[in-house]
Amino acid sequence: MKVGLLGYAGSGKTSVVSFLSGKRHESYDPLKPAVITVKISDSRLKAISEVVKPEKTTESEITFVDIKGCPESAGFDEKTIEIASQLDTIALVIRAFSEERNPCDELDSLYLEMVYRDEERLKILLEKRQQEILNGRRKRSQEEDFLQKCQSFLEQEKFLSSAVFEEKQRMFLVSLGIITIRKFFVVMNGDLMKETLDEKCRRYNLGLCQINAEGSPRQDIELFWKQFLEAAGMLRFYTIVGKETRAWLIPEGSTVLDAAAAIHTDIAAGFVRADVVSFDDFIAAGSFSACREKGLLRSEAKTGIVKDGDIIHIHSAR
Ligand SMILES: Nc1nc2c(ncn2[C@@H]2O[C@H](COP(=O)(O)OP(=O)(O)O)[C@@H](O)[C@H]2O)c(=O)[nH]1
Ligand SMILES: [Mg+2]
Question: Is residue 191 within 8 Å of 201, Cβ to Cβ?
Fold first, then answer.
């Protein structure tokens, strides 16, 4: 799972990654962001391993793409936005640890920069298409009407991610390099104006999590990851297979077939069914077979929805 960090210079993007990875990485080439993979500490995984005693316990991982920031007064250049727009998930990092900058104003600026950039991109695209239609080089299609609708949506200062689209339409916008169709959320670095920022995020329809990358108080890292994953729209599930107990990340709303695909495409291709048990039930019963005896096991077909904390055993013909 890859998450891009986008924010103004000095908001603490590099510090957040350093805090979470325990290592300092800095990229000085604005076009080559530092890419750092971090393990997610997970007390549920530890608890499962204590019961199962596997030879190997594997945490889930997040890869951060630390995109070089710019001063708020300058705004982002197109190249930076392009780097970010290629990522499925983008965290807006807000400086909330010093009085000299207002975190709410900073979020407003970032948010509007994204909206205006997409508006501009669609405007240019529509003008180009219009020209081609006039010249007879393009036949007018529903695509132009659709793009026009997206344009009107952006004019209301809303991210396209909060509109309802079919997957095909979403992919079309992705192919055009539209950024606000991506999954965005907010990471506030520090704790100034938390309540106001919280309110603003709700208005913008963005998840929020909070970290103190360098300051005190000491962060409860488990709680941070829980809030982070929730804000990012991801959940964790677990597998106990052979010698390995392992945590996995998938987007919320994923099916057990998606979970199988996250493990291996072959397992998804041969999918027969999945046995699923919740973390709490598994710990209380002590094993998969005890869960089965007690009727705590759910047998799911391909479309069964994964819940955070599920322990999943996939039966596959491959
Ligand atoms: N007091 C305090 N300073 C921080 C915190 N996070 C970052 N800084 C400082 O803010 C400055 C900018 O941080 P940096 O991570 O380089 O920001 P970036 O430009 O977004 O990557 C550095 O001097 C950091 O030491 C924090 O949580 N508290
Ligand atoms: Mg940096």
Answer: no
The pTM is what?
0.95
Question: Which tokens belong to 212?
Answer: 């103190």
Q: For residue 217, what pLDDT is reported?
A: 64
CA atoms in the 13 A half-sphere facing the CB of 262: 24
User: Cα angle at 17 between 191 and 108, to 5 degrees?
Assistant: 45
Ligand 1 neighbourhood includes 30 CB (under 6 angstroms): no
Is the CB of 33 inside a 6 Å radius of any atom of ligand 1?
no
Answer whether 9 contacts ligand 1 (Cβ < 6 A): yes
Tokens for 177, please give them: 């390099």
Under CATH, domain 253-316 is a member of which superfamily? Beta-grasp domain (3.10.20.30)
| CB of 213 shorter than 6 A to ligand 1 | yes
pLDDT of residue 29: 84
CA-nearest residue, atom 5 of ligand 1:
214
Choose among 34, 58, 25, 22: nearest CA to 248: 58
Report pLDDT digits (tens) over 201-253.
999 999 999 999 997 666 789 999 999 999 999 999 999 998 999 999 999 99
Architecture of domain 1-233 in this structure? 3-Layer(aba) Sandwich (3.40)
In this prediction, residue 17 carries a pLDDT of: 95
